Amino acid sequence: MSKRFLMAGMALALTLAACTASGGNKVEVFSWWTAGGEADGLAAMVKVFEAKYPQYTFENAAVAGGAGTNARAVLATRLSQNDPPSSWQGHAGQELIGTYVAADKIQPLDSLYDSEGWKSVMPAGLIDLISQGGHIWSVPVNIHRANVMWYVPATLTAAGVTPPKTWAEFLTTAATLKSKGITPLAMGEQWTSMHLFETVMIGSLGADGWKALWDGTGDWTSSDVTDALNTFKQVLSYTNADSSTLAWDKAADLVISGDAAFTIMGDWAEGYFKSKNMEPKTGFAWAPAPGTDGIFDFLSDSFVLPVNAKNPDGATAWLKVAGSKEGQDAFNPLKGSIPARSDGDRSLYDVYLTSAMDDWKSDTVVGSLTHGVVANDAWKAKIDTALGLFLADKDVAAFQTALAAACTSDGACK
Amino acid sequence: MGSLRSRWVAVAMLSPSILAVAIFVYGFIGWSARVSLSEWRGLNPDYAWAGLQNFINLFGDRRFQIDMRNTLVFTSFFVIGAVAVGLGLAILLDRHIRGEGIFRSVFLFPLAISLIVTGVAWRWMMNPATGDRVSGLNLLLGGIGLGPLQWHTTDPPWGMAFVALPAVWQMSGFTMALFLGGLRAIPEELKEAARVDGATEFQIYRRVIIPLLRPVLLSALIILGHLSLKVFDLIVALSGKDIRLDVPAIYMWTTTFDANNYAQGAAIGIVLLVSVAVLVVPYLWWSLRTEAEL
Fold first, then answer.
1. In a 3-state reduction of DSSP, which class is residue A161?
2. Which phi-psi region, left, alpha or beta, contains residue A117 (left: φ > 0; alpha: ψ -120 to 50)?
3. Of A177, A218, B72, B262, which residue has the fewest beta carbons closer than 10 angstroms?
4. Is B33:B265 a contact under the CB 8 Å cutoff?
5. Is A162 helix (H, G, I), strand (E, B) or coil?
């Protein structure tokens, strides 16, 4: 009896071994793109890959879960077992660098950038933010813009206001809207308040002031930061009372229904407005968040090359497609984002996306906090806690102290 | 000979589960304890000795203090609520009413639902939106002229008390079943004797029945208490990661998986384990001792 058990066990072990060892030409790509435009975009890029490199088989190892919470936990487990996929998706910038470069899990891609000529087609501001220690660490596939303010023109016309250009102007406009019974700004659960926090900070401190906070040259205790935090506190007082119970799209619904005038959200909101059969520019419209005209607060999904990749040639081939004009123009129109390259085919993109492509070329590029560009995970988690406490007690001094402490304990002020 | 052999068979049959429990429960508890005393941050394990530093950081951490306060508020409202409602239902059902089986099933059904589902459903019911977006229970309250409640978004710490509401809804059927079993085990003669002595029904409950339910009450307190210390899924489903409703289990999750701070996360886990043990171990010791006495 025990012998039979043993045999069965051995057979099982052999099958498992065969499963993991098979397919030297397999390229296993890990992502959290499992639904909607993201999954369609991935499929379109895979088609480009299979046409260009027929010798490899693509294996989709996507794990469901918004913004990759589940996927990242699964990936951490696989990496701890030294079983990395051929390549994986991650938010470009410190979220990747702070976690995977610090743990020696991914390789620099400088030579790939040179051989493919990507440095000349991607903005220098972008290259800076995805580099650390003089090396580039990932291949950005798409670009989203975080600092966009969305509104319905009819609501503003009825209330007799125009989209504010600065945060000071916003506060006056908000007072008018509030007196007419309209919620000035629709906000959702806690991460959307971090999203709002970063746009208020950028709008108040300017691109250089914002950048300085993240490279260690800026001072978190300065009076400029205090002023910006006070502005943020005032802006929060003009948001909907039930914000903590709403997802970002439910907050956008408030703008659609006319209950609220504005919402500040990344440009994935455009797809949501369009899905409600609203016409860009007439049904819904957009402007840079107050004080951020000429600044492009970006976030990006990117792919990496792991150390000890099982099929490094196949993985490199995937990265070449991910960075190519063809690959990016296949992926982005479906995902609703713009290519990281500045030479995308404009005819493939809609009216919002082409305007974003123009801004991407001309604007100053800064990185998003909420979406992983400027702060590593530990630092961001500390900021998230400080922000959560601030949302509850609205104590600006305590918030600023906690932000400065976070920079010292886990951030660039170490 | 035969009994020796059957004893060996018993040991052989038990050993896989003993081994599994030894590794997957006690082994991992030991490993977590070791990690909580280390400096492990980031993806790569780092077992450098940190002593009690992680625990010292934790107890000085404002967020963890809020977590402890929230747990206390939640536990009080949840345990008292579930025991009171469960006991009330059990006493009513014990009157041998018609269709008792149906009522019993109805009250027990919430227990079959996962806490995630409960959380999502109550997120809608306790929707704090005002104006023409009012919905859920506030719609009912508005119908009878009562003002809209803020529910779980009430200012801390009382928002946490509302989180106990769905938990009470879910678990009071379970305490009802416990108490009903206890009530049915009380011999009819005792009640008869009290009635003969001229006791009122209220006095019978107050002086005879409820004191006899004390062992059941203790079991209920232990089971509910350790559940409420570990509460996680209900709150995540109800409010995401809203810090005003934060509890140690959620903080453990964000510390470990969002911030990659494995040592600190393990420290929170150990604090949770110890607080549950403080509750459960004396109970186990007590029940083992009474079993030995029988």
1. coil
2. left
3. B72
4. no
5. coil
CB A368 within 8 A of CB A299: yes
In a domain, B230, yes or no: yes
| 8 Å CB contact of B243 and A392 | yes
- Tell me which residues of chain B have a pLDDT lower than 50: none
How far is it, in rounded angstroms, from Cα B120 to Cα B193? Answer: 50
Mean pLDDT computed over A137-148: 96
In a domain, residue B31? The reply is: no
> Pick from A221, A336, A228: which is nearest to A290 by CA?
A228
Per-residue pLDDT of A160-173, as tens digits, reads: 999 999 999 999 99
Does the ipTM exceed 0.90? no
Query: What letter does residue A120 receive in the DSSP assignment?
Result: G
- CB contacts of A259 in chain B (<8 Å) are 131-133
Structure-model confidence comparison of residues A208 and A21, the more confident one: A208
Query: What would the pLDDT profile of B168-205 be if each residue is shown by its tens digit?
Result: 999 999 999 999 999 999 998 988 899 899 888 889 88
The tokens for B244 are 């005003």
C-alpha A37/C-alpha B221 separation (Å) is 50
Report the gap between the CA of B61 and the closest CA in chain A (Å): 11
Dihedral sign of CA atoms A365, A371, A377, A380 in order: positive
Rounded to a whole number, what is the distance in Å from the CA of A281 to chain B's nearest CA? 27
Reading the block at residue A38, the tokens are 């993201």
Judge residue B104's burial from the number of C-beta atoms within 10 Å of its C-beta, 0-12 exposed, 13-18 middle, 19 or more buried.
middle
Report how many domains make up chain B.
1
Task: Note down the domain range covering B85.
Answer: 61-293
CA distances from residue A20 to A17, A23, A237, A315 in whole angstroms, order as listed: 5, 8, 55, 17
CA A269, chain centre distance (Å): 13
Name the closest residue on chain A to residue B64, using Cα atoms: A385
Segment (H or E) for A362: helix A351-362
CA dihedral sign of residues A28, A33, A34, A35: negative
Percent of chain A as helix, strand, coil, to the nearest 5 = 55, 15, 30
Domain membership flag for residue B42: no
Query: CATH no. for residue B284?
Result: 1.10.3720.10
Place of tokens 């020796």: B4
Identify the structural domains of chain A with CATH numbers, from first to last: 25-144+299-367 (3.40.190.10), 145-298+377-410 (3.40.190.10)
What is the pLDDT, as a whole number, of residue B70? 93
Q: Are B272 and B249 in contact (CB under 8 A)?
A: yes
Q: Is B48 domain-assigned?
A: no
A32 phi and psi angles, rounded to 5 deg: -115, 30
A360 pLDDT higher than 90: yes
- Do the chains contact at B242 and A190, CB–CB below 8 Å? yes
